[in-house]
Amino acid sequence: MLSSGNSAFLLIQTGVIFLTILLGTVLLFLLWTSTPKPMVSYRNHLLNITFWSMACVLVILVAQPTTVTFSTGFCFQPNWLGALLPRLLVHILMILMIVLTLNVGVAICLSFAHRYFQIRSCLRVGGATEESTSSLALSGAVVHATVFIYTSVLIHFLFGHSKDNPDLSDLFCLNTESPFYTVFLVSLLIFDSLTTFSCIFLCVLSLRSLLEAKKAAPSSFAFQRMLTLGLVVSSALPVSLGAIPSAVGFLILKFDPFLVGGLARGCSLVASVTAPLIFALSLVMLKPYREKLWMLLRCGKNPNVRVSAVKWIGRVRWSYCCDDLYRGVATHVDWGEIIPQPLAIGDFFMLKAYERLTKQGKLLPMQTTLQDLQAAYSKEENRVIDNAKALKMRMTSVVKSEQRAAITVAYFVTEDYSKRLAEAGQVDCAQIKAVTSFSSFQRETEHMEC
Prior knowledge:
By secondary structure, the chain is mostly helical. It is built from 15 helices and six strands.
Protein backbone atom coordinates (compact mmCIF):
# COMPACT_ATOMS: atom_id res chain seq x y z
CA MET A 1 0.00 0.00 0.00
CA LEU A 2 1.41 3.38 -1.00
CA SER A 3 1.82 6.06 1.63
CA SER A 4 0.29 9.49 1.05
CA GLY A 5 3.77 10.90 0.40
CA ASN A 6 4.52 8.32 -2.28
CA SER A 7 1.10 8.83 -3.87
CA ALA A 8 1.66 12.58 -4.09
CA PHE A 9 5.13 11.98 -5.52
CA LEU A 10 3.78 9.64 -8.19
CA LEU A 11 1.00 12.07 -9.13
CA ILE A 12 3.53 14.87 -9.60
CA GLN A 13 5.82 12.59 -11.58
CA THR A 14 2.94 11.43 -13.79
CA GLY A 15 1.88 15.01 -14.46
CA VAL A 16 5.43 15.94 -15.46
CA ILE A 17 5.62 12.92 -17.78
CA PHE A 18 2.37 13.77 -19.57
CA LEU A 19 3.59 17.36 -20.00
CA THR A 20 6.82 15.94 -21.43
CA ILE A 21 4.93 13.73 -23.88
CA LEU A 22 2.84 16.71 -25.02
CA LEU A 23 5.86 18.97 -25.56
CA GLY A 24 7.83 16.15 -27.19
CA THR A 25 4.99 15.38 -29.60
CA VAL A 26 4.69 19.05 -30.59
CA LEU A 27 8.46 19.29 -31.09
CA LEU A 28 8.55 16.12 -33.21
CA PHE A 29 5.72 17.45 -35.39
CA LEU A 30 7.51 20.75 -35.96
CA LEU A 31 10.85 19.03 -36.60
CA TRP A 32 9.31 16.93 -39.38
CA THR A 33 7.13 19.62 -40.95
CA SER A 34 8.77 23.01 -40.35
CA THR A 35 12.52 22.54 -40.61
CA PRO A 36 14.23 24.72 -43.26
CA LYS A 37 16.90 22.94 -45.31
CA PRO A 38 19.88 24.70 -43.61
CA MET A 39 18.67 23.24 -40.30
CA VAL A 40 18.20 19.62 -41.43
CA SER A 41 21.45 18.33 -39.92
CA TYR A 42 20.72 20.25 -36.71
CA ARG A 43 17.23 18.74 -36.71
CA ASN A 44 18.65 15.22 -36.94
CA HIS A 45 20.65 15.69 -33.75
CA LEU A 46 17.67 17.28 -32.02
CA LEU A 47 15.61 14.27 -33.09
CA ASN A 48 18.26 12.05 -31.48
CA ILE A 49 17.94 13.91 -28.17
CA THR A 50 14.15 13.82 -28.40
CA PHE A 51 14.09 10.08 -29.12
CA TRP A 52 16.17 9.11 -26.07
CA SER A 53 14.34 11.57 -23.80
CA MET A 54 10.89 10.38 -24.88
CA ALA A 55 11.92 6.74 -24.48
CA CYS A 56 13.17 7.46 -20.95
CA VAL A 57 9.99 9.19 -19.77
CA LEU A 58 7.79 6.49 -21.31
CA VAL A 59 9.70 3.84 -19.36
CA ILE A 60 9.26 5.86 -16.17
CA LEU A 61 5.54 6.29 -16.95
CA VAL A 62 5.06 2.52 -17.22
CA ALA A 63 7.27 1.50 -14.27
CA GLN A 64 6.33 4.40 -11.93
CA PRO A 65 9.26 3.70 -9.57
CA THR A 66 9.69 4.94 -6.04
CA THR A 67 12.76 4.22 -3.91
CA VAL A 68 13.13 2.50 -0.56
CA THR A 69 16.41 3.11 1.30
CA PHE A 70 17.96 0.56 3.66
CA SER A 71 21.27 0.26 5.52
CA THR A 72 23.39 -1.10 2.65
CA GLY A 73 21.65 0.35 -0.41
CA PHE A 74 18.28 1.19 -1.86
CA CYS A 75 15.56 -0.49 -3.92
CA PHE A 76 13.29 0.54 -6.79
CA GLN A 77 9.65 -0.28 -6.17
CA PRO A 78 7.33 -0.40 -9.23
CA ASN A 79 3.87 1.07 -8.75
CA TRP A 80 0.51 1.25 -10.53
CA LEU A 81 0.95 -0.32 -13.98
CA GLY A 82 4.50 -1.43 -13.18
CA ALA A 83 3.26 -3.46 -10.22
CA LEU A 84 0.97 -5.47 -12.52
CA LEU A 85 3.64 -6.40 -15.08
CA PRO A 86 5.74 -9.61 -15.00
CA ARG A 87 8.88 -9.33 -12.92
CA LEU A 88 11.18 -9.91 -15.91
CA LEU A 89 9.60 -7.05 -17.84
CA VAL A 90 9.82 -4.72 -14.84
CA HIS A 91 13.47 -5.75 -14.40
CA ILE A 92 14.13 -4.66 -18.00
CA LEU A 93 12.28 -1.39 -17.43
CA MET A 94 14.36 -0.61 -14.34
CA ILE A 95 17.55 -1.19 -16.33
CA LEU A 96 16.30 0.96 -19.22
CA MET A 97 15.37 3.79 -16.86
CA ILE A 98 19.05 4.33 -16.00
CA VAL A 99 20.51 3.40 -19.39
CA LEU A 100 18.27 5.74 -21.39
CA THR A 101 19.08 8.65 -19.08
CA LEU A 102 22.79 8.16 -19.79
CA ASN A 103 22.15 8.06 -23.54
CA VAL A 104 20.42 11.44 -23.40
CA GLY A 105 23.75 12.86 -22.24
CA VAL A 106 25.54 11.15 -25.14
CA ALA A 107 23.05 12.62 -27.63
CA ILE A 108 23.56 16.13 -26.22
CA CYS A 109 27.37 15.81 -26.45
CA LEU A 110 27.08 14.74 -30.09
CA SER A 111 24.88 17.77 -30.77
CA PHE A 112 27.48 20.11 -29.28
CA ALA A 113 30.24 18.49 -31.37
CA HIS A 114 28.16 18.85 -34.54
CA ARG A 115 27.33 22.49 -33.73
CA TYR A 116 31.03 23.34 -33.32
CA PHE A 117 31.99 21.68 -36.61
CA GLN A 118 29.16 23.45 -38.42
CA ILE A 119 30.29 26.88 -37.23
CA ARG A 120 33.86 26.14 -38.33
CA SER A 121 32.52 25.04 -41.69
CA CYS A 122 30.59 28.27 -42.15
CA LEU A 123 33.80 30.20 -41.39
CA ARG A 124 35.47 28.37 -44.31
CA VAL A 125 38.23 27.09 -42.01
CA GLY A 126 37.33 23.41 -42.14
CA GLY A 127 34.70 21.64 -40.17
CA ALA A 128 31.55 19.82 -41.11
CA THR A 129 31.76 18.25 -44.54
CA GLU A 130 29.51 15.50 -45.82
CA GLU A 131 32.15 12.92 -44.88
CA SER A 132 32.78 14.34 -41.40
CA THR A 133 29.05 14.54 -40.72
CA SER A 134 28.68 10.88 -41.69
CA SER A 135 31.67 9.99 -39.50
CA LEU A 136 30.15 11.85 -36.55
CA ALA A 137 26.84 10.04 -37.05
CA LEU A 138 28.62 6.67 -37.22
CA SER A 139 30.75 7.46 -34.16
CA GLY A 140 27.63 8.57 -32.31
CA ALA A 141 25.84 5.32 -33.12
CA VAL A 142 28.85 3.35 -31.84
CA VAL A 143 28.99 5.39 -28.60
CA HIS A 144 25.23 4.99 -28.04
CA ALA A 145 25.44 1.23 -28.58
CA THR A 146 28.50 0.89 -26.31
CA VAL A 147 26.93 2.85 -23.45
CA PHE A 148 23.64 1.01 -23.86
CA ILE A 149 25.12 -2.51 -23.84
CA TYR A 150 27.77 -1.89 -21.15
CA THR A 151 25.47 -0.21 -18.64
CA SER A 152 22.63 -2.66 -19.31
CA VAL A 153 24.84 -5.67 -18.53
CA LEU A 154 26.37 -3.97 -15.50
CA ILE A 155 23.05 -2.93 -13.97
CA HIS A 156 21.56 -6.35 -14.71
CA PHE A 157 24.15 -7.96 -12.44
CA LEU A 158 23.92 -5.09 -9.96
CA PHE A 159 20.22 -5.58 -9.25
CA GLY A 160 19.56 -8.18 -6.60
CA HIS A 161 17.59 -8.93 -3.44
CA SER A 162 18.15 -7.50 0.01
CA LYS A 163 19.21 -10.47 2.15
CA ASP A 164 19.02 -8.47 5.37
CA ASN A 165 15.50 -7.22 4.67
CA PRO A 166 13.04 -10.01 3.72
CA ASP A 167 10.32 -7.40 3.29
CA LEU A 168 12.24 -5.98 0.33
CA SER A 169 12.71 -9.31 -1.44
CA ASP A 170 10.22 -8.42 -4.18
CA LEU A 171 11.91 -5.10 -5.00
CA PHE A 172 14.82 -4.31 -7.30
CA CYS A 173 17.66 -3.44 -4.96
CA LEU A 174 21.15 -2.03 -5.49
CA ASN A 175 23.55 -3.34 -2.85
CA THR A 176 26.22 -0.70 -2.31
CA GLU A 177 28.56 -3.30 -0.75
CA SER A 178 28.61 -5.35 -3.93
CA PRO A 179 31.78 -5.14 -6.09
CA PHE A 180 29.50 -4.51 -9.07
CA TYR A 181 28.32 -1.33 -7.38
CA THR A 182 31.90 -0.04 -7.15
CA VAL A 183 32.41 -0.71 -10.85
CA PHE A 184 29.07 0.91 -11.62
CA LEU A 185 29.87 3.94 -9.45
CA VAL A 186 33.29 4.50 -11.03
CA SER A 187 31.82 4.09 -14.52
CA LEU A 188 28.99 6.49 -13.73
CA LEU A 189 31.32 9.13 -12.28
CA ILE A 190 33.61 8.90 -15.31
CA PHE A 191 30.71 9.02 -17.74
CA ASP A 192 28.93 11.94 -16.05
CA SER A 193 32.20 13.86 -15.74
CA LEU A 194 33.02 13.30 -19.41
CA THR A 195 29.50 14.23 -20.45
CA THR A 196 29.37 17.41 -18.41
CA PHE A 197 32.88 18.67 -19.16
CA SER A 198 32.67 17.72 -22.85
CA CYS A 199 29.46 19.71 -23.16
CA ILE A 200 31.01 22.68 -21.35
CA PHE A 201 34.21 22.48 -23.43
CA LEU A 202 32.36 22.21 -26.75
CA CYS A 203 29.96 24.92 -25.61
CA VAL A 204 32.88 27.32 -24.96
CA LEU A 205 34.50 26.44 -28.30
CA SER A 206 31.23 27.03 -30.13
CA LEU A 207 30.70 30.40 -28.45
CA ARG A 208 34.28 31.44 -29.27
CA SER A 209 33.80 30.43 -32.89
CA LEU A 210 30.59 32.43 -32.90
CA LEU A 211 32.57 35.57 -32.07
CA GLU A 212 34.82 34.83 -35.03
CA ALA A 213 31.76 34.31 -37.22
CA LYS A 214 30.48 37.76 -36.26
CA LYS A 215 33.54 39.27 -37.95
CA ALA A 216 34.26 36.76 -40.71
CA ALA A 217 30.71 35.89 -41.79
CA PRO A 218 28.34 38.59 -40.48
CA SER A 219 25.60 37.57 -42.90
CA SER A 220 25.26 34.12 -41.34
CA PHE A 221 26.06 35.18 -37.77
CA ALA A 222 22.45 35.58 -36.60
CA PHE A 223 21.55 32.17 -37.99
CA GLN A 224 24.51 30.51 -36.25
CA ARG A 225 23.81 32.40 -33.04
CA MET A 226 20.21 31.18 -32.95
CA LEU A 227 21.21 27.51 -33.37
CA THR A 228 24.13 27.72 -30.93
CA LEU A 229 22.33 29.57 -28.15
CA GLY A 230 19.31 27.34 -28.68
CA LEU A 231 21.46 24.28 -28.05
CA VAL A 232 23.34 25.84 -25.13
CA VAL A 233 20.23 26.99 -23.29
CA SER A 234 18.04 23.99 -24.06
CA SER A 235 20.61 21.23 -23.50
CA ALA A 236 23.55 22.36 -21.35
CA LEU A 237 21.37 23.34 -18.40
CA PRO A 238 19.24 20.16 -18.34
CA VAL A 239 22.20 17.79 -18.76
CA SER A 240 23.97 19.51 -15.86
CA LEU A 241 20.78 19.37 -13.81
CA GLY A 242 20.42 15.65 -14.48
CA ALA A 243 23.98 14.30 -14.69
CA ILE A 244 25.73 16.02 -11.78
CA PRO A 245 23.13 15.36 -9.03
CA SER A 246 22.73 11.72 -10.08
CA ALA A 247 26.49 11.09 -9.92
CA VAL A 248 26.75 12.80 -6.51
CA GLY A 249 23.72 10.88 -5.24
CA PHE A 250 25.13 7.46 -6.21
CA LEU A 251 28.48 8.45 -4.65
CA ILE A 252 26.84 9.37 -1.32
CA LEU A 253 24.85 6.12 -1.40
CA LYS A 254 28.13 4.24 -1.31
CA PHE A 255 28.93 5.65 2.13
CA ASP A 256 25.57 6.41 3.75
CA PRO A 257 22.35 5.53 1.90
CA PHE A 258 20.15 7.33 4.41
CA LEU A 259 22.09 10.57 3.95
CA VAL A 260 20.75 11.22 0.46
CA GLY A 261 17.13 10.84 1.51
CA GLY A 262 14.95 12.57 -1.07
CA LEU A 263 17.72 12.64 -3.72
CA ALA A 264 17.64 8.86 -4.09
CA ARG A 265 13.87 8.86 -4.00
CA GLY A 266 13.59 11.62 -6.57
CA CYS A 267 16.22 10.42 -9.04
CA SER A 268 13.55 9.35 -11.52
CA LEU A 269 11.74 12.68 -11.06
CA VAL A 270 14.96 14.54 -11.94
CA ALA A 271 15.26 12.41 -15.07
CA SER A 272 11.65 13.26 -15.92
CA VAL A 273 12.12 17.00 -15.44
CA THR A 274 15.14 17.32 -17.76
CA ALA A 275 13.20 16.14 -20.83
CA PRO A 276 10.40 18.77 -20.74
CA LEU A 277 13.05 21.43 -20.14
CA ILE A 278 14.88 20.37 -23.30
CA PHE A 279 11.66 20.28 -25.34
CA ALA A 280 10.22 23.55 -24.04
CA LEU A 281 13.47 25.50 -24.38
CA SER A 282 14.03 24.15 -27.90
CA LEU A 283 10.57 25.36 -28.92
CA VAL A 284 11.22 28.78 -27.40
CA MET A 285 14.81 29.32 -28.58
CA LEU A 286 14.56 28.12 -32.21
CA LYS A 287 12.71 30.77 -34.21
CA PRO A 288 11.26 28.65 -37.06
CA TYR A 289 9.58 26.29 -34.59
CA ARG A 290 8.54 29.06 -32.24
CA GLU A 291 6.85 31.10 -34.97
CA LYS A 292 5.21 28.06 -36.54
CA LEU A 293 3.85 27.08 -33.12
CA TRP A 294 2.52 30.61 -32.60
CA MET A 295 0.77 30.41 -35.96
CA LEU A 296 -0.76 27.03 -35.16
CA LEU A 297 -2.00 28.45 -31.85
CA ARG A 298 -3.35 31.48 -33.79
CA CYS A 299 -1.49 33.94 -31.58
CA GLY A 300 1.17 35.21 -34.00
CA LYS A 301 1.39 38.61 -35.70
CA ASN A 302 -1.68 37.81 -37.76
CA PRO A 303 -4.02 35.17 -36.29
CA ASN A 304 -5.66 34.70 -39.69
CA VAL A 305 -2.42 33.81 -41.44
CA ARG A 306 -2.36 30.62 -43.52
CA VAL A 307 0.54 28.23 -43.95
CA SER A 308 1.79 27.01 -47.31
CA ALA A 309 4.87 25.25 -48.62
CA VAL A 310 7.15 27.36 -50.82
CA LYS A 311 10.08 26.09 -52.86
CA TRP A 312 13.38 27.94 -52.78
CA ILE A 313 14.13 29.23 -56.25
CA GLY A 314 16.69 27.24 -58.22
CA ARG A 315 17.48 24.98 -55.27
CA VAL A 316 15.91 21.95 -53.67
CA ARG A 317 15.16 23.75 -50.43
CA TRP A 318 11.92 24.21 -48.56
CA SER A 319 10.65 26.53 -45.89
CA TYR A 320 7.28 27.40 -44.42
CA CYS A 321 6.00 30.86 -45.22
CA CYS A 322 2.83 32.76 -44.57
CA ASP A 323 0.42 34.10 -47.18
CA ASP A 324 -0.18 37.48 -45.60
CA LEU A 325 -1.87 39.78 -48.12
CA TYR A 326 -0.87 43.01 -46.41
CA ARG A 327 2.60 42.74 -44.89
CA GLY A 328 4.46 40.70 -47.48
CA VAL A 329 4.97 37.25 -48.93
CA ALA A 330 6.37 35.91 -45.66
CA THR A 331 5.48 37.30 -42.25
CA HIS A 332 8.59 35.49 -40.99
CA VAL A 333 10.47 38.24 -42.85
CA ASP A 334 10.59 41.56 -41.09
CA TRP A 335 9.75 43.56 -44.21
CA GLY A 336 10.17 46.76 -42.22
CA GLU A 337 13.93 46.29 -42.49
CA ILE A 338 13.75 46.19 -46.30
CA ILE A 339 10.55 47.80 -47.50
CA PRO A 340 9.42 50.93 -45.61
CA GLN A 341 5.74 50.42 -46.45
CA PRO A 342 3.48 47.37 -46.79
CA LEU A 343 2.99 45.88 -50.23
CA ALA A 344 -0.52 45.15 -51.48
CA ILE A 345 0.23 41.81 -53.09
CA GLY A 346 -3.31 40.45 -53.20
CA ASP A 347 -3.21 40.44 -57.02
CA PHE A 348 -0.12 38.25 -57.24
CA PHE A 349 -0.97 35.11 -59.11
CA MET A 350 0.43 32.72 -56.48
CA LEU A 351 -1.88 34.05 -53.82
CA LYS A 352 -4.77 34.18 -56.26
CA ALA A 353 -4.22 30.61 -57.38
CA TYR A 354 -3.83 29.50 -53.78
CA GLU A 355 -6.93 31.35 -52.66
CA ARG A 356 -8.94 29.98 -55.56
CA LEU A 357 -8.14 26.42 -54.56
CA THR A 358 -8.95 26.98 -50.89
CA LYS A 359 -12.20 28.84 -51.58
CA GLN A 360 -13.36 26.09 -53.91
CA GLY A 361 -12.81 23.61 -51.10
CA LYS A 362 -10.32 21.57 -53.12
CA LEU A 363 -7.76 21.66 -50.34
CA LEU A 364 -7.24 22.99 -46.86
CA PRO A 365 -4.42 25.47 -46.15
CA MET A 366 -2.43 22.91 -44.15
CA GLN A 367 -2.77 20.37 -46.98
CA THR A 368 -1.32 22.55 -49.73
CA THR A 369 1.47 20.87 -51.71
CA LEU A 370 3.80 22.11 -54.40
CA GLN A 371 1.97 19.95 -56.96
CA ASP A 372 -1.36 21.58 -56.05
CA LEU A 373 0.09 25.05 -56.48
CA GLN A 374 1.87 24.20 -59.71
CA ALA A 375 -1.38 22.86 -61.14
CA ALA A 376 -3.00 26.19 -60.37
CA TYR A 377 -0.04 28.10 -61.82
CA SER A 378 -0.46 26.34 -65.17
CA LYS A 379 -3.80 28.17 -65.53
CA GLU A 380 -2.18 31.51 -64.73
CA GLU A 381 0.73 31.44 -67.21
CA ASN A 382 -0.60 34.32 -69.30
CA ARG A 383 -0.54 36.59 -66.24
CA VAL A 384 2.95 35.74 -65.00
CA ILE A 385 4.89 38.33 -66.97
CA ASP A 386 2.43 41.16 -66.25
CA ASN A 387 2.50 40.49 -62.52
CA ALA A 388 6.30 40.21 -62.56
CA LYS A 389 6.50 43.59 -64.29
CA ALA A 390 4.17 45.11 -61.69
CA LEU A 391 6.18 43.63 -58.86
CA LYS A 392 9.42 44.97 -60.33
CA MET A 393 7.96 48.47 -60.55
CA ARG A 394 6.87 48.33 -56.91
CA MET A 395 10.26 47.05 -55.80
CA THR A 396 12.05 49.79 -57.73
CA SER A 397 9.92 52.49 -56.18
CA VAL A 398 10.29 51.50 -52.54
CA VAL A 399 13.52 49.57 -52.21
CA LYS A 400 17.02 51.02 -52.06
CA SER A 401 19.27 49.81 -54.84
CA GLU A 402 21.74 48.12 -52.53
CA GLN A 403 18.92 46.21 -50.84
CA ARG A 404 17.19 45.11 -54.04
CA ALA A 405 19.31 41.98 -54.43
CA ALA A 406 18.07 40.73 -51.05
CA ILE A 407 14.41 40.85 -52.06
CA THR A 408 12.92 37.40 -52.38
CA VAL A 409 10.57 36.50 -55.21
CA ALA A 410 8.36 34.00 -53.42
CA TYR A 411 5.85 33.25 -56.10
CA PHE A 412 8.28 32.23 -58.85
CA VAL A 413 8.01 28.64 -57.71
CA THR A 414 9.56 26.64 -60.53
CA GLU A 415 12.91 27.04 -62.22
CA ASP A 416 11.05 27.13 -65.53
CA TYR A 417 9.25 30.32 -64.54
CA SER A 418 12.52 31.82 -63.31
CA LYS A 419 14.20 31.19 -66.67
CA ARG A 420 11.23 32.50 -68.65
CA LEU A 421 11.11 35.69 -66.63
CA ALA A 422 14.85 36.21 -66.95
CA GLU A 423 14.73 35.61 -70.70
CA ALA A 424 11.86 38.06 -71.01
CA GLY A 425 14.02 40.67 -69.32
CA GLN A 426 11.51 41.31 -66.58
CA VAL A 427 13.60 40.09 -63.66
CA ASP A 428 17.38 40.10 -63.40
CA CYS A 429 18.78 36.65 -62.57
CA ALA A 430 20.73 38.17 -59.70
CA GLN A 431 17.47 39.28 -58.10
CA ILE A 432 15.94 35.81 -58.03
CA LYS A 433 16.98 34.70 -54.55
CA ALA A 434 15.91 31.86 -52.30
CA VAL A 435 12.76 32.44 -50.31
CA THR A 436 13.71 33.25 -46.73
CA SER A 437 11.69 32.26 -43.69
CA PHE A 438 13.77 34.12 -41.12
CA SER A 439 13.96 37.76 -40.16
CA SER A 440 17.54 39.01 -40.15
CA PHE A 441 19.83 36.23 -41.26
CA GLN A 442 20.75 33.71 -44.01
CA ARG A 443 22.05 35.94 -46.77
CA GLU A 444 24.72 33.34 -47.61
CA THR A 445 23.02 30.07 -46.72
CA GLU A 446 22.65 29.14 -50.38
CA HIS A 447 26.29 28.05 -50.35
CA MET A 448 26.55 26.30 -47.03
CA GLU A 449 24.80 23.76 -44.84
CA CYS A 450 24.67 25.66 -41.57
